[in-house]
Amino acid sequence: MKYVGRFAPSPSGPLHLGSVVAACASYVDAQAHGGRWLIRMEDLDTPRMMPGAAEFILNQLDSLGMRTQDPILYQSERLCHYQSAFDRLLSLNAVYPCGCTRREIADSALRLQGSLPEGERPYPGTCRQGLPEGRQALSWRLRVPEGIWRFRDRWLGPMEQDVARAVGDFVLKRADGIWAYQLAVVVDDAAQGVTHIVRGQDLLSSTARQQQLATLLGYEVPEVLHVPLVMDANGLKLSKQNHANPVDLTRPLETLQNAWVALGFEKPNVKNTQDFWVEATRVWVQRLSRANLHVIN
Ligand code: GLU
């Protein structure tokens, strides 16, 4: 079986335990399938990038024993590919320019129902039929198809989202000219031949959007598995924005064990990181086949 997995960190800061959990799950899933595992630096959002973070992250992954034979892909070097995907959508009349400000969208969203994480507001479709008089294009949005989008998550089971109602037409090119994460991730997963996406549950609400976009672009839709998020003492998701501590590189085995426990497994009794990966892969295969979430070939 051809398996290609990936870990796609944003170099806006070093990895914290939450991101190590996602990296660990994607790495172990690739090992369990005897597949390839890629690293992709999602460095498009230049205002949020931290100088040196990409190298630091690669160093962290290396000391945790997560290594790849494949070249690292940097999204900042792939702008022309996002442009050609966008042009294709344009030729399909699947995108349109939008002149709304964030404020306007937030105001109209108060009248609409949504099931998105805080901070995400459904777009009410103001510019769908054309820019209102005197408005300038700020961003570009996808014309989201109507209806419920269904998919199966290998960890969570059957999932569904009415993207048109819950999210609305979403942004592919931002007002600051930067390609949106949703477009770049879909273009790159297809370009890299990714068959299996394993990542944190914070991205679960993006999955339906990404699958719709992939389908419109004629790409194969990868399998998905979303692992639980690590919370801090206040019940908030560990994140770079919340200044979560970078993982301690002087104790790689302990870090891996903590990540493994956060995934809901027992702490493996092993002496080094190499043995950790052997044991973790064995347990992962067992868990997946027992839960009948996925058949390992
Ligand atoms: N770059 C995204 C992040 O760090 C992850 C993208 C993905 O796995 O799809 O949150």
TrEMBL record:
One of its GO terms (cellular component) is cytosol. Binds 1 zinc ion per subunit. Residues 5-246 form the Glutamyl/glutaminyl-tRNA synthetase class Ib catalytic domain. One of its GO terms (molecular function) is ATP binding. It is an enzyme of class 6 (ligase). Zn(2+) binds at C98, C100, Y123, C127. A motif ('KMSKS' region) lies at residues 237-241. It comes from the Bacteria. Gene3D superfamilies: HUPs. L-glutamate binds at R6, F7, A8, P9, S10, E42, Y181, R199. Pfam families: tRNA-synt_1c (PF00749). Its cofactor is Zn(2+). ATP binds at K240. Keywords: Aminoacyl-tRNA synthetase, ATP-binding, Ligase, Metal-binding, Nucleotide-binding, Protein biosynthesis, Zinc. Its EC number is 6.1.1.-. The keyword Ligase applies. The keyword Acyltransferase does not apply. One of its GO terms (biological process) is glutamyl-tRNA aminoacylation. Belongs to the class-I aminoacyl-tRNA synthetase family. GluQ subfamily. HAMAP family: Glu_Q_tRNA_synth. Catalyzes the tRNA-independent activation of glutamate in presence of ATP and the subsequent transfer of glutamate onto a tRNA(Asp). Glutamate is transferred on the 2-amino-5-(4,5-dihydroxy-2-cyclopenten-1-yl) moiety of the queuosine in the wobble position of the QUC anticodon. This is Glutamyl-Q tRNA(Asp) synthetase.
